[in-house]
Amino acid sequence: MSVHVARGGADPDGNGPWLTTLLPTSEIAQRERFAVAINGDFFDAEATKDVEGKNTGYLRGKAAAPVGMAMSDGVLWHRPKTPRPYLEITAAHIAKLETGSEPIDAAAREMVGGSQIIVRHARAITFTNLFATARHPRTAVGIDASGTQLTLLVVDGRQPDLSIGMTLAELSDEMIRQGCAAAINLDGGGSTTLVVRNAKSKKPEVLNSPSDTRERSVADVLGVRVDEKSE
Asked: What is the mean pLDDT of residues 167-184?
């Protein structure tokens, strides 16, 4: 079993500002043969509003770029100008969280960015801004004290009959309850997606209920690849 970060589609403009194209998490998971995948970092995308100013959504095929660090198979394909926290997976399959201000680890092989580190040393970190205190759909990744066990957590929201979402404080408490010594908040809202490969059909299925009422396309995902011989 191995953990990977995969971008959406190909770089659409070479040396231009965009680094990938948006694709649904399930399509990326199918292409990369991931058994499990979640949406990754926050991202910017081209022309997300039409000429009338209405939101057109983050649609499949739009040029995009993640906001934070992005590395796939040892290739760093985005580094933000302003430090942002990220999850790193090393060549030795050790996971750790970095603030973004450190030198890049030579052993790093996968990186996915997030907005805040919400748990350190098994203690919640408090944030008081509106993004933190409002309840939203959330996606988070946590690691145990040894860095050898990942916890992927997806929380639905903005659907009163199903789930209203979580604050970052509630998300932190849940990650600690799940045994995480450290955790990071990834992109959430309409991007929040959990995909698992169906054991019979071998096709990825969305297990949560995205708040957009359909699966949103994203810039990158965090996926788990399992040796099919071991399944």
From this structure: 98
Quickly count: other Cβ atoms within 10 Å of residue 107's Cβ: 12
Q: Please check whether residue 103 is in contact with residue 83, taking contact to mean a CB–CB distance below 8 angstroms.
A: no
Nearest to 180 by CA among 89, 99, 118: 118
- The whole-angstrom separation of Cα 5 and Cα 208 is 20
DSSP-based three-state secondary structure for 63:
strand
Report the length, in residues, of the chain: 231
**Number of alpha carbons in the 13 Å side-chain half-sphere of residue 140:** 30
Q: How far, in Å, CA of 148 to CA of 185, rounded?
A: 19
pLDDT tens-place string over residues 74-101: 999 999 999 999 999 999 999 999 999 9
User: What is the per-residue burial (b if ≥16 Cβ within 10 Å, else e) of 174-184?
Assistant: bbbeeebbbbb
pTM of the model: 0.95
- Contact call for residues 162 and 156 (beta carbons, < 8 A): yes
SS3 content of the chain, % helix, strand, coil (to 5): 10, 40, 50
- Report the SS3 class of residue 106: coil
Q: Over the range 219-229, which residues count as b (16 or more CB within 10 Å of their CB) and which as e? A: bbbbbbbeeee
Nearest to 215 by CA among 46, 7, 25, 43: 25
DSSP summary character for residue 17? S
**Encoded amino acid at 196, one letter:** V
Residue ranges of domains in the chain:
2-230
Let me know: does 63 contact 12? Beta carbons within 8 Å. yes
